[in-house]
Specification:
The chain is of the alpha+beta class. The chain is 37% helix and 14% strand. The longest helix has 28 residues.
Length: 374
């Protein structure tokens, strides 16, 4: 700050707070996905906090000071067709007296090997910086959503934060690398939860038939085996590890079942403590902060929805090219456990080998046929 000017890092809207204590559970026609997608993702709607469940009537009003475990889902960008799936992170913190969540921690994973045009890096990030940083804030270029659980026992939150801190440590040491299909913001987050024995139900994959078809189509049209491999990996990755919205939906539904005792599986120790600790659940919808940026929308929930939303002609896509970051060799203390995959996956190799064998067999048969005729 100088005598006649100052530099602002964030501008935090005061209405970004959880302060609605009227119980309004999901109706028969509602689920978490309909809440996210309503009103064009709520991009221009007022901030909303909706109390979905509380253990004891009125107990949500006593949330101040309680530990918090939250799910963060960021929507689709309006100025980047490669960012229609959104972004995902796990949130920890403590419920404030006024319901503000500006000082909660967001465990934010981004690719270390590229330089974000917004200046975003992977880190445990304060919420005010994560959502409202004047350059890197998520809500300057898309809407966001949270499912927030207040707990009477802080053990589940503390165990997760301790584990994700170690994951961040491994990430920066190069023990594993960011991969948009296998180890993205969603996969890293949900893998950490599952490693704690929170057995979040899976949602399956898109399918190998579709993946193989997409591989050959991309390889022939774009003449790029790496792009073809990426499409193949997208379609063969379990969707709760791939798509932010699917992870948000799956974890959120399981939180609702745990809180209401409707889970049918045998619970792990972590799940039992979490289920017993949940005192209230809120859904929070955070609008995009008006700026010069194009308005975003709700994130896509499937690969097919992605294809329907993005222009059919790839030349019409709006994308943002990112520069590569030169990471010092000292950061890489070992070979990553998930090195960049080979451009041709094994199923494709087997198919090509089988086709080659079939062609050779047919060719030999034709030679024998014409030799006999002679």
């Amino acid at each position: 700050m100088t005598d006649d000017a100052f530099i602002a890092r964030t501008v935090w809207p005061l209405d970004f707070a959880i302060n609605n204590y009227q119980l309004l559970p999901l109706s028969e026609d509602e689920d978490l996905q309909t809440l996210v997608q309503a009103d064009d993702g709520g991009v221009q709607q007022p901030h909303q906090s909706r109390l979905l469940w509380e253990r004891i009537p009125g107990s949500a009003m006593e949330a101040a000071g309680k530990p918090v475990l939250g799910l963060m889902l960021n929507g689709a960008q309006g100025d980047d067709h490669e960012a229609l799936a959104g972004h995902f992170a796990i949130v920890t913190g403590q419920f404030d007296d006024d319901g503000s969540y500006s000082d909660w921690l967001v465990n934010n994973f981004y690719n270390l090997e590229t330089i974000s045009e917004k200046g975003i890096i992977a880190a445990v990030t304060p919420m005010d910086n994560y959502l409202a940083d004047l350059n890197a804030g998520q809500n300057y270029y898309r809407p966001s959503y949270m499912l927030v659980a207040t707990l009477k026992n802080g053990q589940p939150t503390a165990e997760f934060q301790q584990s994700i801190n170690q994951v961040i440590n491994y990430f920066y040491r190069g023990h594993f690398i960011y991969n948009h299909a296998d180890a993205n913001c969603t996969g890293i987050s949900i893998d950490t939860l599952r490693a704690l024995d929170w057995n979040i139900p899976t949602r399956g994959i898109n399918g190998y038939v579709q993946a193989i078809g997409a591989y050959f189509y991309t390889a022939l049209v774009e003449m790029d085996l790496n792009a073809a491999r990426q499409i193949y990996d997208y379609l063969t990755t379990e969707t709760t590890r791939l798509l932010p919205a699917v992870a948000f939906d799956a974890i959120g539904e399981d939180l609702l079942r745990l809180s209401t005792g409707q889970t049918t599986r045998s619970l792990s120790s972590y799940e039992k403590i979490l289920a017993d600790s949940i005192e209230a659940l809120w859904f929070v919808r955070i609008p995009q902060i008006p700026s010069s940026r194009v308005y975003g929308d709700a994130p896509v929930y499937s690969f097919n929805e992605y294809l329907e939303t993005a222009p059919a002609d790839r030349d019409e896509w709006v994308t943002i090219e990112l520069a590569e970051r030169n990471i010092p060799a000292s950061f890489h203390q070992q070979r990553p456990v998930n090195p960049k995959p080979h451009p041709i996956p094994w199923p494709i190799v087997l198919i090509l080998f089988g086709l080659s064998g079939f062609i050779i067999l047919v060719f030999r048969s034709l030679i024998k046929h014409f030799s006999r005729r002679k």
